[in-house]
Design a protein that fits this description.
By secondary structure, the chain is of the alpha/beta class. It has 5 helices and 7 strands. Strands 1, 2, 3, 4, 5, 6 and 7 form a 7-stranded mixed β-sheet that branches. Helix 4 crosses helix 5. It binds inosinic acid (IMP). The site of inosinic acid (IMP) has 15 residues, from strand 3.
Length: 195
């Protein structure tokens, strides 16, 4: 079975291919000749993930899945949420994004936050969604160098390190994306018992 993962991020692709085994062949956007920007114009993670997956299914005719992730901060009414990548501006600068979150939370007691990933899977035009959440809090200042995005300011519940102080394997086991992917894989394996 061939399945497109609507990404050009080689790390995400390789990690998922390893988890899926060789009965499902993952294809990237480049593999299917999609060199245009995949639209994500919706106001929710669910909407964006679905828009991306349906775009590929309808335009290229491949079964496909797409993901969308946001950091949701309780005291900021769920912001930056679907706008996480460009919270501080269109140049998608992680340092500026973290700075903005820290500024907005300045003096606020409630620092609860969560990462949420939504995966939309479209098979023969039928959509199924999978959600992964990791609860935690926003630290007072950045800690650690690993990872990307908001990792240095996010500490998952039950841990004393930020995501940026964890080994990649440890982060993946408990992360929002890891949890959503786990559900996707269980679903795909059930769909195709021969995997
Ligand atoms: P995407 O939907 O995976 O592209 O994620 C959107 C934005 O959310 C990214 O640009 C990052 O700012 C943030 N983000 C997503 N996943 C993570 C993560 O695992 N750690 C830190 N930030 C993340």
């Amino acid at each position: 079975m061939k399945l497109v993962f609507a990404t050009n991020n080689p790390h995400k692709l390789r990690e998922l291919q390893q988890l899926l085994g060789d009965k499902i062949q993952l294809l990237s956007l480049t593999d299917i000749g999609c060199d245009e920007e995949v639209p994500e114009n919706q106001e929710t993670l669910e909407g964006n993930a679905a828009e991306k997956a349906f775009f590929i299914f309808e335009k290229f005719g491949f079964n496909c899945f797409a993901d969308d992730t946001g950091l949701e901060v309780e005291a900021l009414n769920g912001e930056p949420g679907v706008y996480s990548a460009r919270y501080a501006g269109e140049d998608k600068n992680a340092e500026a994004n973290m700075g903005k979150v820290l500024d907005q939370l300045n003096g606020k007691e409630n620092r609860k936050a969560r990462f949420r990933t939504v995966i939309s899977l479209v098979i023969d035009g039928e959509e199924t969604q999978f959600e992964g959440i990791v609860d935690g809090k926003i630290l007072e200042e950045k800690q650690g160098e690993a990872g990307f995005g908001y990792d240095p300011v996010f500490q998952p519940d039950g841990f004393s390190e930020s995501f940026a102080e964890m080994e990649a394997g440890q982060k993946n086991r408990i992360s929002h994306r890891g949890r959503a992917v786990e559900k996707l894989i269980a679903y795909l394996k059930n769909l195709n018992k021969s995997i």
